[in-house]
Amino acid sequence: MRRYEMFEHTADLGFTAYGVDLSEAFAAAGEALFSIITDNARIDPVTEIEMTTESVDREGLLVGFLSELLVRFEVDRLVLTDFSVAFEGVCKMSVRAMGEKYDIEKHGRGHHVKGVSYHLMEIVDNSGSDEESYVKVLLDV
Prior knowledge:
Layout: E1 4-9, E2 12-19, H1 22-38, E3 47-54, H2 58-76, E4 78-87, E5 92-101, H3 104-107, E6 115-124, E7 133-140
Antiparallel strand pairs: 1-2, 2-7, 3-5, 4-5, 6-7
Helix pairs in contact: 1-2
């Protein structure tokens, strides 16, 4: 199964991330974000992080999740992979990910992501059907 695919939009960059359910689609969105930041560099699973995100709806959860990942990159200099996402109802989720400190020699320079947009966002839950679930996200680069 494909994990994610990129698309361009004016001066921005976006992706559609897929999974058999929304947990996998959100996890693939985390991977897509770091592939954009690192220009598809290999990230070794050296450090484990855990985080919880809450919002009033699924769109807010997705924006909050990806925004927190951007903070982890900008402040802690972490690049992450191997995401595991668990929803606790509609408005809360917990995340586990593995990663390492960013090293420009190893991880290169991808795009500088300034933020996550609600514009064009789509969240489609096809759990229990033959169709993939997916999230579509536009990033301000």
